[in-house]
Amino acid sequence: MKNKSNLLLFSALLGGLLFSFLFWKERLALNLMIYSIFILIITYLNPDVIKSLKFKIYGFAHLLAAILVVINNSDLSLVSYYISLILFIGYSHNQKIRTVFTAFGAAILKMVTVPLNAIKTLNEVKIGNFNFKPVFKLVKYVFIPIVIVTIFTCLYSAASSVFAHYAEALLINIGDFFNNIFGFIFKDLSFSRFMHFCFGIMVTAGLLISFFDKSLQQIELKCKEQLLRVRKNINQKTVWFEVAKVFSGNLLTKKLALKTEFITGLISFAALNLLLLFLNGIDIWWLWLGKGRNFAEINYSADLHDGTNSLIFSIALAMAIIIYFFRGNLNFYSKSKALRILAFAWMIQNFILIISVLIRDGYYIEFYGLTHKRIGVLVFALLCVIGLISVYIKVSKQKTFFYLLKLNGNIWFALLLVFSLVNWDIFIVKYNLSHSDSISVDADYLLSLSDKTLPVLDKNRMKLQHTESKSEYGTEIARPETLATNQQKLNQRIGFFKDRYERVSWISWNLQDWKTAEYFKISK
């Protein structure tokens, strides 16, 4: 216990130094991978962490995400990095957890409570006959009031601009005071750099020091993946029962409640099938059979932006309704076969609806090119397909909602890593410019993408001009930008990249910036 506490505290201190060295005024790239390797090694050396298969899988997944940050350096790769790090920490210290959602919550709770965990760990540290317990008794009297005062200061500052002005002035004076002290002792050390170091210690401690409360893990262990028929005791009432009784009267206490729910579900699914059949018939006629390929008949912009979001929401709501009706004893009802058939038919119709969404998106991409939002529609449609398949398994195999969370959570995380493999900004620019003869090129949008696209844009300078595009009302959009204006914007972007690239050190190295610098022959 003593050696473990010393290792974790020393690692937190070392991690704070490493954090300050790697991330102070640097871009997120190679430094993230170096920091992750440090976290992985220390977590592996922690005797409380079991080196199971789950530990290795999520450790490898996080290392892959860190490598992708160095290779692609995209916003999606950063999101993948942070989520994989949190999941790795959550699973490492709570290896009986089965869903990514609980692992995520456990890791966040662990990091939020890092002061308490650090104090508990420090109480176990002994240097000879000296221990920290008396010291931290005094810290308790100071730390808690500081936290309370800080919270209420933020609240009062938000409520009063005058109070915020004086609070800001006080903070500036305190910062200047510490800057003078640190500037006198260490010429190269500022108060902001010291606070950055302290923040690094807090982050590292939150990632490394074990959370002593395993309540989330214990709660999840009670969750089952297979539905079981439960004999309900009507005399045993919960708070939710009493709340529901206010709106339902004595319906909950009737013996025919299960039959009533069955009839309600039967009518609902029959009506919804007819409604969706009508909508799918319209889509098949106008979209699948090609009637909608004439702009005079269908406005693709309105259909995509206004219609697609509603359709995806309706699919998600459909899955929620199916989950609701098949959440409990209705799965074991002797006459539930007809309800299952209607539910399966509705799932098939929702799958047809997803195909219609994909056709809409495909038409829009064909005429206007790729954007992140249009790719996002494809991703959401894929997630809806996966969700419908998992709901089908849930109904047919009589699985629980917890099973759905476990299955979909793992699939979503795997897809996040897969999608991070693609450099989407470059893919979008290359696709749109290579199809500039057939689509409406939005030069403003292409010039707004990340610096990694600059070499592709520079090679296609003559294509950065206005091409006709129309609003959702059919009128042409007036754009004053000319080819010369867009090329000037590109030159400014290249200049900004050069200044930014020359300011950072090797710690911020990533493959895409290096390729861009090589293309424009920029050296540090």
From TrEMBL:
Give the transmembrane region(s). Answer: 7-24, 30-46, 58-91, 97-118, 138-159, 194-212, 262-288, 308-326, 338-359, 375-395, 407-429
Q: Tell me the classification of the organism that encodes this protein.
A: Bacteria, Pseudomonadati, Bacteroidota, Sphingobacteriia, Sphingobacteriales
Supply the InterPro entries for this chain: DUF4153
Q: Which domain of life is it from?
A: Bacteria
Q: Which Pfam families match?
A: DUF4153
Q: What is this protein called?
A: DUF4173 domain-containing protein
Which key words tag this protein in UniProt? Membrane, Transmembrane, Transmembrane helix
User: Quick check: keyword Membrane in the entry?
Assistant: yes
